[in-house]
Every structure is written in C-alpha cells, then in structure tokens.
Amino acid sequence: MLATxxxxxxxxxxxxxxxxxxxxVEHEAVVTDEDGAKMIRLDAARARLGLSATALDVSVExxxxxxxxxxxxxxxxxxxxxxxxGEVPSIRWHGDGTGPALPADFRVLTVTGVETITPHMRRIRxxxxxxxxxxRIEALHVRLFIPxxxxxxxxxxxxxxxxxxxxxxxxxxxxxRKYTIRExxxxxxxxxxxxxxxxxxxxxxxxxxxxxxxxxxxxxxxGGRGLKIAERYIFLADETGLxxxxxxxxxxxxxxxxxxxxxxxxAGEEQALSAPAGIAxxxxxxxxxxxxxxxxxxxxxxxxxxPAEGPSVYLWAASEHGAFRDIRAAARGKLRPExxxxxxxxxxxxxxxxxxxxxxxxxxxxxG
Length: 368
Description:
With 368 residues, the chain is an alpha+beta fold. The chain is 22% helix and 35% strand.
C-alpha cells in the first residue's frame, strides 16, 4: 500500500470536518468512527482524519497512485471549500506520491496518422503509454486536453504539493473536450478517436482539421457509462454519438438483436458499421437542414415497438439537447423499471458553447 500524510492547521477544524464527511458520503464514500477519528473509504483508498483543537491530521493509504491522488484531492478540495471565508489552509503532503506530477489518469498522446472517414468525420490515430485503464467498454468517454494552436511546448495540468489540480496559466491552458475512444490496442500503445468536422469549428474540430503526425494532446479518464447486457438493444445518435455506437456494436454478442438509428447529413456521411446480423441499422438523412433541427431521432423512437412482455432492453441515446430532452420524456412511457436499462445523454446544444452546455447540464443535474 502507498501511504501519505498531512497536518492541516485550521481555526475550527471540527467545523470543516463535519461537512467534508457529509459531502463525501454523497459521493459514495463510507465514513465511520474509529478511536476518535473519522475513517473514510472511497473506492480502493482509505483515509484517517484525526481531530485536534487546531488541526486535522490526515493519513491516506491506497494500492496505487491513481487511488492515492483521488483521495488526497477529495480531502484537500473539500477542506479548502469548507474552510471559513478568508482562511486559506496550508496543505502539504509527505510520503508516497508527493511533489508536482501529472494526474495518474492523464496521458500524453502523439498523433501518428490522420484518416478521412467521411467528408465531415476524421479519424486521428495516436500513440501513448500505459493505456490499459482506457480499454473499457463500460466507460467510453475521455477528456481531451487540446493545447492552443501555435503554443509550442504544451502545458499540462499538474497535481501540486497540496494534492489539488493546478491548471496552466490562461494563455497556455488547454481546451477540454469529451470524446469517445473509437479503437484501442492497449498492448501496442495505440488508439484512435473520431472527430466531427464543423464549419463553426470548436477546439476539437479545429484540432482535427489541422492535426498532423507529431502533434500532441492530453487525455484523462475514462468516464461515463457504456454498454449493458440486455436481450434487445436500441441505439439512437447523431454524428457526435456515432463513434460510441460504432464501438459498442463491435463488442455486442454475435447473436444480439436490436435497432440502430443514426442521423447524418446525407448518404456520403454513412459509415460501414460492424454489427451482429440481428442488429438493423437505419440511417436518417436531414439533407440541407441544420444538425439537430429536425425531429428525426424522436420520430424513430416514437415508432419503436415496445411490447409490455417483450425482452429486456438497453436503450442508449446521444444527440443534440432538444432531441435528448424529447427522447428522455418519451422514454418514460416505454421503459419498464423492472426490466430495462438506459442511458440518454445530451452531447451538445445548438447555438451554445461547450462550456455553457456543460455548466447547464451540471445545474440541471443538481436540481434533479
């Protein structure tokens, strides 16, 4: 086990410890009392928080550096959050995993090749080290750290002496975008990601348009939810969700049955998908209409047969926010809680920047 400790001097440590523990419980930590201290278990890590009149004495143990960093960050960030206004706690860890370092879930990727899949879809191939953690079909998404163009040597986020994530200065700060790994060979240290090329290119699309061998980006993760076992599968997506659908189709059992509906501009944007014979793939063309402006996916979902006594279903849908909202509402009348599973997500929102869309989703989740 790796181990690290810190002593955090506070004016009123008890006032910080109580909300810290309550908040971690909300995030699936297990908190117990032991010999006058709080014991916290979060995933594979465990921590002991001893309380005195002037400080919190913290010790953390974990089987690997990723779990150690995660627990350190969880404790340090909440100490800072719950400290009285105007008090800036000094946090410095001692032991394993100390000193500035890249986050354990962070990798630097180097472009090895660029391939045009369709007029508006580009596949970029990368090489990286220690990719095994990303080879998980149940966690499809990664965060890409895309440096500003023309920066020269990229600047990456680092874990500081306090255990918190320190971002580069604003002028060198990478843009962060979520993408899906399309292909991965962890043993060979290679992976591929598909990028949609937009006329009004954001950081991800702009990077894909200019990418060349030798360029570098950062990647962290994985996260999100992916494939679940069911007797019938239903996938609905536009171009942004297509890479995830394609990857899940390739991993389905050969006897799987279900339906796939993908919205694209026209036949030129269709791709050859590897799917079991029992999975029917339908391409929905919007023509010259703007992406997300037609109810193609909503209409396809509404027309689906969903027998009350039929097979168990896994529904996966990813699209523009309007389609997401409509499909989620309609799904409430079809999904059977005792038998079906689902993941319905909003990948983007028309006319809204990615940062605003992410903030809006977090606010909506908080209200729920």
